[in-house]
């Protein structure tokens, strides 16, 4: 458990005292600055509570005592130290003071240098005042800065006020500027002081002999006159008058800045200021002033001010600024940003006619020359268009007639083409240029989206970009290529730059293909042909290595293109399939060449990419060859695990591929590669055999991971994912064998006939639904997971839910009862309701019509619970895989309605055989469709890093009857705990979330009784494996609904898990910047008999986007002991 600053205060105070007594002045300065950094960290931490004092063994208020001691010691150093020491002390207090900027008045009352926190503030003021009285001008200036930093208590001290007033009229400029700083700080908290300073500033600014720096400092003080509306209004008028009288540009800019900050507190003042300074953009003002005006207007508009600027004339003014050639690029960008903010506000109120006028205005603005040279300007313009599209969708306004999207695509691609020419020149290329290319491709993603009309144009432009790049690398110089280009691009730097450029194009194409949603096979064929031309362009350039050529070739294995062409009909369809298999062989040959060249890391990356795309034969070949070259046990086991996983998926893929797959098999046989995948898989029971072999390979893959001797945090996602895939495969095999699906041998031992076979379905259905929940749990337990991986897991979870619904088809027949096969305390109606509820929860944003049909299957009072909340990070992305699962749902719904009609019109004996036949046909088709879906592997599966999680530390609040090593409570009493929740691995660049709320659920019951061996402590030290905890899903659901209930949402009814038989408590924490929170709780264990019990716990959080996440427990379960009452 990491110590908080309050627990370190005593040590810091002692170390500071030792350093200040040192005879080495440099050591004293270093100690003071080091203390300043610690004080900054301390000021960001929440106020310590009783839990902090208890866990760290502190006396209450001990931290405040040492805090004030540290402040006094630093002030003493200022009083008696030399100039370097004094400057160091001022830097410390300035750094702490800056942290209060932007805080509200209520927050400032309890901040780190407030009067409530600094007990000995009078003593500090007297000591620094003594330095002011006895020191020279530099010492006085430093003392005045300290007074400004201590404004909360110094502004009430009359002698200090007098010193500031007298220093304002001093003959030393340094002292005057320091007094202006202190006066500005005091004006923010003291109205009476501000009135006096306001009168003095008016005379000071007009004084002709005042130094320019001092005059600018005086003008800046006006910006701090905002403690009350009356003073701000008065200061605004005075400052406005002075600005109109000023003739110097430097003073004019300073006045503009101060007026802008004053007017940001009032819409009336902001509008008045805008009316005055708008003409400055058209008058003959210097570029310096015009740029300042644009910055001021942008500052106000960002804060929602200046509503007068949204009129048509002002909007047109900013649009016209984009075409003024005399304006610099920076000024045009600022004008464009203001134009964007104004349009966003106008879109909120625009009717259809006004919206089309705005579109015309944007089209006119897009003709500016700035868009041919600035990627940032293009991104702003694309952002404006996206806002227009969003508004049009909300208000159902048709904007398809505009050509603006095509214009924007041309702008982006023309800029990319010009950058390609620069990138091909080794004298001009640098990483900033590469970054600009990456940014433009990101903008292109936003622009293209799902608009089919611009996709083909974009692919042509991407190919043109590659052609310009490769042509630039092959510039002829007589009979030879440019020697400089060869040298630079053969060097390490050239390889890195070239790789970054190609990676940007490749990433764009990946996401581009993922977003292609089109049922028109002719359009998909055109997309395939254009991607193929891009691939050929890369393969034709000798500067690109085999790894680059391979990953571009694998683009043709994208699930969108692969699935559509596999289903193609006619001669064209056959030629496309053959073509794709030929490129599959090309990728195999490239992988063989990469490994032969001993480029193992590029080979591994290519194997990872092939696995993510579902090119399992290629990935199996790469991992199979790499595992023999692994130099460590961890690498060897990891590669073996990936090999088994690729074999499991590759076996099913080859079986379900069209007839053209024999080319791949023949290539494998001729090259003596992957004998398991190249053997004949045809036969009557091929599908069942493939399922069994896939299951065995998944088990082997999981076993290889278990052999890795590494921290359980590192491979937790991989292990959990493989465990769930193995369980799903095992459950599907049970379903196939019990019902004799997929031409299963009728002599199979598991197969049963008649009604007995149907009675196995409810158990399998419940098991599949539980696996769907576990996939949900997996997705929410890793806060740094990427969106594509999250989408894959959501689709896997949906597939389990759909299979559970299909397997539970017989439960929806009211005349048949399955109570004897259901778990205890589970009703048939309840199972039906949960199956429907689970599907509706996942599909209500994807297909509302199916949700309506599903809701009709259960009673009205049961269907009401289907509209419960869902984590924002678990929303499904509509794709071809989801569409295939939706078709299974429709088949199940049709089957249920048919069975219900038959059961009402026929006798039970007559209907049984028909029901059994219908269920087998339905489930056979469902399993076959499920096997054909290319789920792929999450990108996050290949992130080998410690996962983000939490550790829980607990001590009994009653320290008189417990120790730091044990938690105990007397029988008949409640257990009071002081808790510390410590997040692990959260402070990493790869973690993109910021936590706003933190929760922890503690749960125990009599069944968690555990024997305590001699020497054991309060914690079960065994490594935690979440996939083995049966209560984890239910605990996650309770914690999630507690979190959203705090936000006003309706909680979900707890499923089959009975919380009444145990004791639970949900604790909320306030995390500090290090991810550490403290709190206390009570567990009512008064009815527990004497003995030792485990406490299961799970923590969760809500991030800045409102998404809920679980945090993996990285420490064992807590153990407490109930003792006999004394």
UniProtKB/TrEMBL annotation:
<protein>
    <recommendedName>
        <fullName>Integrator complex subunit 7</fullName>
    </recommendedName>
</protein>
<dbReference type="Pfam" id="PF24436">
    <property type="entry name" value="INTS7_N"/>
</dbReference>
<dbReference type="GO" id="GO:0016180">
    <property type="term" value="P:snRNA processing"/>
</dbReference>
<dbReference type="InterPro" id="IPR055195">
    <property type="entry name" value="INTS7_C_plant"/>
</dbReference>
<dbReference type="GO" id="GO:0005737">
    <property type="term" value="C:cytoplasm"/>
</dbReference>
<feature type="domain" description="Integrator complex subunit 7 helical bundle">
    <location>
        <begin position="619"/>
        <end position="789"/>
    </location>
</feature>
<comment type="similarity">
    <text>Belongs to the Integrator subunit 7 family.</text>
</comment>
<dbReference type="GO" id="GO:0032039">
    <property type="term" value="C:integrator complex"/>
</dbReference>
<dbReference type="InterPro" id="IPR056517">
    <property type="entry name" value="INTS7_HB"/>
</dbReference>
<feature type="domain" description="Integrator complex subunit 7-like C-terminal">
    <location>
        <begin position="949"/>
        <end position="1123"/>
    </location>
</feature>
<dbReference type="Pfam" id="PF22966">
    <property type="entry name" value="INTS7_C_plants"/>
</dbReference>
<keyword id="KW-0539">Nucleus</keyword>
<feature type="domain" description="Integrator complex subunit 7 N-terminal">
    <location>
        <begin position="66"/>
        <end position="412"/>
    </location>
</feature>
<dbReference type="InterPro" id="IPR056516">
    <property type="entry name" value="INTS7_N"/>
</dbReference>
<keyword id="KW-0963">Cytoplasm</keyword>
<dbReference type="InterPro" id="IPR016024">
    <property type="entry name" value="ARM-type_fold"/>
</dbReference>
<dbReference type="Pfam" id="PF24437">
    <property type="entry name" value="INTS7_HB"/>
</dbReference>
<dbReference type="InterPro" id="IPR033060">
    <property type="entry name" value="INTS7"/>
</dbReference>
């Amino acid at each position: 458990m990491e110590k908080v600053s309050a627990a370190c205060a005593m040590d810091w105070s002692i170390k500071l005292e030792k350093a200040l007594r040192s005879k080495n002045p440099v050591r004293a300065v270093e100690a003071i600055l080091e203390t300043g950094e610690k004080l900054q960290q301390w000021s960001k931490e929440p106020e310590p509570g009783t839990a902090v004092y208890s866990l760290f063994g502190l006396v209450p208020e001990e931290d405040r005592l040492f805090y004030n001691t540290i402040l006094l010691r630093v002030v003493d150093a200022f009083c008696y130290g030399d100039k370097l020491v004094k400057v160091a002390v001022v830097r410390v207090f300035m750094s702490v003071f800056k942290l209060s900027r932007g805080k509200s008045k209520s927050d400032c009352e309890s901040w780190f240098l407030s009067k409530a926190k600094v007990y000995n503030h009078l003593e500090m003021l007297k000591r620094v005042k003594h330095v002011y009285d006895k020191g020279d001008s530099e010492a006085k200036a430093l003392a005045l800065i300290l007074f400004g930093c201590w404004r909360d208590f110094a502004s009430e001290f009359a002698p200090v006020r007098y010193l500031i007033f007298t220093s304002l009229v001093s003959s030393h400029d340094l002292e005057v500027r320091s007094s202006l700083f202190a006066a500005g700080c005091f004006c923010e908290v003291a109205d009476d002081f501000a009135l006096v300073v306001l009168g003095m500033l008016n005379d000071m600014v007009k004084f002709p002999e005042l130094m320019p720096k001092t005059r600018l400092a005086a003008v800046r003080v006006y910006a701090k006159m905002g403690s009350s509306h009356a003073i701000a209004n008065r200061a605004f008028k005075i400052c406005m008058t002075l600005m109109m009288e000023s003739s110097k540009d430097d003073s004019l800019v300073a006045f503009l800045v101060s007026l802008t900050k004053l007017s940001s507190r009032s819409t009336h003042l902001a509008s008045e200021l805008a009316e005055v300074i708008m003409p400055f953009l058209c008058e003959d003002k210097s570029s310096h002033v015009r740029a300042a005006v644009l910055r001021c207007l942008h500052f106000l508009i960002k804060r929602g001010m200046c509503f007068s600027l949204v009129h048509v004339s002002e909007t047109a003014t900013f649009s016209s600024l984009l075409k003024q050639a005399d304006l610099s690029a920076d000024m045009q960008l600022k004008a464009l940003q203001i134009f964007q903010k104004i349009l966003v506000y106008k879109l909120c109120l625009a009717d259809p006619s006004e919206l089309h006028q705005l579109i015309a205005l944007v089209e006119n603005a897009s003709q500016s020359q700035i868009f041919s040279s600035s990627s940032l300007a293009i991104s702003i313009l694309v952002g404006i268009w996206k806002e227009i599209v969003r508004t049009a969708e909300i208000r159902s306004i048709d904007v398809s007639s505009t050509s603006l999207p095509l214009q924007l695509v041309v702008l982006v691609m023309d800029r990319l083409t010009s950058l390609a020419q620069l990138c091909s020149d080794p004298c001009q290329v640098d990483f900033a240029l590469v970054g600009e290319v990456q940014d433009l491709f990101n903008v292109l993603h936003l622009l293209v989206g799902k608009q089919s009309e611009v996709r083909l144009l974009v692919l042509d432009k991407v190919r043109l970009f590659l052609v310009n790049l490769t042509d630039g690398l092959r510039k002829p110089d007589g009979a030879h290529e440019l020697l400089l280009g060869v040298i630079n691009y053969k060097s390490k730097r050239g390889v890195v730059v070239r790789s970054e450029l190609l990676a940007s194009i490749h990433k764009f194409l990946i996401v581009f293909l993922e977003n292609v949603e089109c049922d028109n096979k002719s359009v998909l064929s055109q997309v395939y042909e254009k991607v193929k031309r891009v691939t050929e362009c890369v393969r034709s350039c000798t500067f690109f290595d085999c790894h680059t050529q391979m990953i571009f070739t694998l683009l043709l294995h994208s699930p969108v293109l692969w699935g559509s062409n596999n289903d193609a009909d006619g001669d064209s369809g056959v030629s496309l399939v053959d073509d794709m298999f030929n490129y599959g062989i090309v990728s195999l040959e490239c992988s063989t060449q990469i490994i032969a060249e001993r480029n193992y890391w590029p080979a591994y990356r290519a194997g990872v990419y092939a696995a993510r795309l579902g090119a399992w034969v290629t990935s199996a070949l790469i991992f199979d060859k790499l595992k023999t070259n692994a130099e460590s046990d961890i690498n060897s086991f990891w590669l073996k695990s990936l090999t088994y996983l690729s074999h499991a998926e590759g076996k099913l893929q080859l079986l379900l591929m069209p007839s053209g797959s024999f080319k791949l098999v023949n290539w494998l046989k001729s090259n003596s590669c992957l004998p398991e995948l190249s053997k004949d898989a045809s036969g009557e029971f091929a599908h069942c055999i493939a399922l069994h072999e896939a299951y065995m390979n998944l088990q082997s893959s999981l076993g290889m991971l278990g052999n890795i001797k590494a921290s359980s945090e590192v491979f937790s996602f991989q292990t959990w994912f493989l465990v769930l895939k193995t369980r799903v495969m095992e459950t599907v095999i049970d379903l196939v064998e019990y019902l004799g699906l997929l031409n299963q041998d009728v002599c199979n031992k598991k197969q049963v006939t008649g009604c007995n076979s149907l009675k196995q379905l409810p158990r399998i259905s419940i098991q599949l639904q539980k696996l769907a929940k576990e996939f949900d749990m997996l997705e929410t337990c890793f806060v740094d997971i990427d969106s594509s991986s999250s989408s894959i897991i959501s689709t896997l979870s949906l597939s389990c839910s759909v299979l559970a619904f299909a397997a539970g088809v017989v439960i929806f027949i009211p005349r048949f009862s399955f109570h004897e096969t259901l778990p205890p305390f589970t009703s048939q109606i309840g199972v039906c309701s949960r199956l429907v509820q689970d599907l509706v929860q996942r599909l209500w944003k994807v297909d509302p019509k199916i949700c309506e049909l599903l809701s009709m299957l259960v009673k009205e009072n049961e269907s009401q619970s289907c509209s419960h909340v869902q984590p924002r990070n678990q929303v499904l992305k509509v794709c071809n895989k989801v569409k295939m699962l939706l078709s299974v749902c429709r088949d199940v719904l049709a089957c249920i309605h048919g069975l219900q009609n038959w059961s009402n019109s026929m006798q039970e004996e007559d209907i049984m055989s028909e029901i059994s036949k219908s269920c087998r046909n339905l489930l056979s088709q469902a399993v076959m469709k499920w096997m054909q879906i290319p789920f792929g592997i999450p990108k996050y599966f290949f992130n080998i890093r410690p996962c983000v999680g939490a550790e829980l530390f607990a001590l009994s609040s009653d320290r008189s009857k417990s120790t730091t090593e044990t938690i105990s409570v007397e029988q008949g009493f409640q257990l009071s705990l002081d808790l510390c929740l410590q997040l692990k691995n959260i402070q990493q660049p790869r973690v993109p979330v910021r936590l706003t709320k933190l929760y922890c659920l503690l749960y125990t019951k009599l069944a968690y009784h555990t024997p305590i061996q001699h020497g054991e402590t309060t914690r079960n030290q065994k490594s935690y494996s979440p996939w083995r905890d049966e209560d984890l899903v239910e605990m996650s659901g309770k914690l999630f609904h507690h979190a959203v209930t705090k936000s006003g949402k309706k909680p979900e009814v707890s499923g089959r898990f009975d919380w009444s038989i145990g004791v639970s408590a949900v604790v909320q924490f306030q995390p500090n910047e290090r991810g550490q929170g403290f709190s206390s709780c009570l567990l009512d264990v008064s009815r527990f008999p004497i003995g030792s019990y485990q406490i299961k716990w799970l923590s969760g959080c809500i991030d800045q986007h409102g998404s809920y996440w679980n945090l993996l427990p990285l420490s064992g379960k807590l153990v407490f002991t109930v003792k006999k009452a004394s």
